[in-house]
């Protein structure tokens, strides 16, 4: 066990080898952690478990460090298997232990495990005295599941926030003041962009609600990644910034797929046009770029220009899939444009432009496209296209 603060302990698992998550949808280049916590007071409380592949190791650790018979209650902040996966195995050992969760959490637990356990439903503002400390519950609906909630340990001033404020990150230390800050924030914003972005309006409102509760917060301990003990409110402020509908950083992203470099050459010329008007840009080939990293860049970008050559009257598959992912993650409200090359019919750039509009992007320019390899004159037109786009920002 590692003490977080005032008899609140980390009893989780570090997964150094994890590289894909959520059904291989999300890349996790730096591994992850499954953070579970024990609160030792007059009552001993377990908060969340770990992913079921680690259930035996987890329960053995609890037996050695705490003693299963000493666990008086279990809090399940969220029932997704990476947090509650070991619950079934644990409850085989201590079947009468009361479980506390949200109303949606009760449905989720029953749906996952099909057991008639002693489940107690709590809602925002409910509290539970466990000795010197008091547990206060806050529902966090759709951050990122309907059943999500956080548990505030009043007395220790520790927020056990589950998925909110986490990262898929397994560094050498558990604490934010002992890790590489660039790595930490790369993983924090990647987590937000790929998991929480669809719920930005709800997140903004929930943060405002939590601020209004005037909680004394010394530590924020999420269920993935590092524990925020040095200025923990910094990640709350970042979430509030990222949840704004107009959030962006000061660069444009040009993302393309190309078959024989014609579209790539157009992308580079468009980037030159942006640069001529003092707009920095990043170029990504979607067929060779990690999708989760690319989504993060699109989330941060202040504008998006997307291109593909035409194949089978449409676009190359990496662009089609990226447009679909952008819609599902509700990436929108950014200036955007389309471009591409073609050999026969040339519908690809038009498809991209229409899909960008459908996804909620601000598309004012007609897409630019050229047949076969662009000539020097046509590349100059691409530069002008980039300049015109930059001037519209």
Q: Could you name the key traits of this structure?
A:
393 residues; alpha/beta; Metallo-beta-lactamase, Chain A; Rossmann fold; 2 domains; seven-stranded mixed beta sheet; six-stranded parallel beta sheet; 24 strands
Folded structure, characterized:
The structure is a single chain. The strands form six sheets. The chain has a seven-stranded mixed sheet. Strands 17, 18, 19, 22, 23 and 24 form a six-stranded parallel sheet that branches. A five-stranded mixed sheet has the order 12-13-14-15-16, with no helix packed on it. The protein starts with a strand and ends with a helix. The mean pLDDT is 96. It folds into two domains: 241 residues, 4-Layer Sandwich (Metallo-beta-lactamase, Chain A); 141 residues, 3-Layer(aba) Sandwich (Rossmann fold). Strand 17, helix 8 and strand 18 form a beta-alpha-beta unit. Helix 8 crosses helix 12. By secondary structure, it is of the alpha/beta class. The protein has twelve helices and 24 strands.
Rg is 24 Å
Basic shape = elongated
Structural class of the secondary structure composition? alpha/beta
CATH class of the largest domain: Alpha Beta
- What is the number of helical segments per DSSP (H or I, 4+ residues)? 12
Give the distance, in angstroms, between the N- and C-terminal Cα atoms: 52 Å
Q: Biggest sheet, strands in spatial order? A: 1-2-7-8-9-10-11
CATH-defined superfamily of the largest domain: Ribonuclease Z/Hydroxyacylglutathione hydrolase-like
According to CATH, what is the topology of the largest domain?
Metallo-beta-lactamase, Chain A
- Major β-sheet, in short? 7 strands, mixed
Quickly count the domains: 2
Report mean pLDDT, rounded to a whole number: 96
Unreliable residue runs: none
What share of residues are in beta strands?
15-25%
What percent of residues adopt helix (DSSP H or I)? 25-40%
| CATH architectural type of the largest domain | 4-Layer Sandwich
Topology, number of strands: 24
């Amino acid at each position: 066990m590692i003490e977080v603060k005032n008899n609140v302990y980390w009893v989780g698992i570090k997964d150094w080898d994890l590289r894909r998550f959520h059904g291989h949808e999300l890349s996790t280049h730096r591994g992850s952690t499954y953070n579970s916590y024990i609160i030792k007071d007059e009552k001993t409380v377990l908060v969340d478990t770990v992913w079921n592949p680690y259930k035996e190791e987890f329960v053995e650790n609890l037996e050695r460090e705490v003693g299963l018979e000493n666990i008086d209650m279990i809090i399940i902040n969220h029932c997704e298997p990476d947090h509650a996966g070991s619950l079934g195995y644990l409850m085989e050992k201590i079947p009468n232990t009361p479980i506390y969760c949200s109303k949606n959490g009760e449905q989720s637990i029953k749906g996952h495990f099909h057991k008639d356990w002693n489940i107690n439903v709590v809602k925002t503002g409910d509290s539970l005295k466990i000795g010197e400390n008091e547990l206060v519950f806050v529902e966090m609906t759709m951050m990122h599941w309907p059943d999500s909630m956080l548990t505030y340990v009043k007395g220790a001033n520790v927020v056990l926030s589950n998925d909110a404020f986490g990262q898929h990150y397994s560094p050498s230390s558990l604490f934010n003041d002992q890790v590489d800050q660039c790595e930490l924030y790369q993983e924090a914003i990647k987590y937000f962009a790929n998991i929480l972005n669809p719920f930005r309006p709800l997140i903004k409102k929930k943060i405002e609600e939590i601020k209004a509760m005037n909680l004394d917060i010394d530590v924020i301990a999420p269920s993935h990644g590092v524990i925020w003990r040095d200025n923990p409110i910094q990640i709350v402020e970042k979430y509030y910034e990222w949840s704004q509908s107009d959030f962006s950083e000061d660069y444009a992203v040009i993302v393309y797929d190309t078959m024989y470099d014609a579209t790539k050459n157009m992308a580079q010329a468009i980037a030159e046009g942006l640069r001529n008007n003092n707009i920095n840009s990043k170029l990504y080939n979607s067929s060779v770029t990690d999708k989760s990293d690319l989504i993060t860049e699109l989330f941060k970008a202040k504008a998006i220009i997307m291109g593909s050559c035409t194949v089978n009257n449409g676009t190359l598959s990496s662009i089609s899939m990226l447009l679909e992912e952008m819609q599902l993650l509700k990436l929108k409200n950014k200036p955007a444009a389309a471009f591409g090359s073609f050999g026969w019919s040339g519908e690809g750039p038009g498809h991209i432009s229409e899909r960008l509009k459908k996804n909620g992007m601000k598309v004012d320019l007609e897409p630019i496209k050229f047949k076969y390899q662009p000539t020097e004159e046509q590349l100059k037109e691409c530069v002008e296209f980039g300049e015109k786009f930059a001037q519209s920002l």
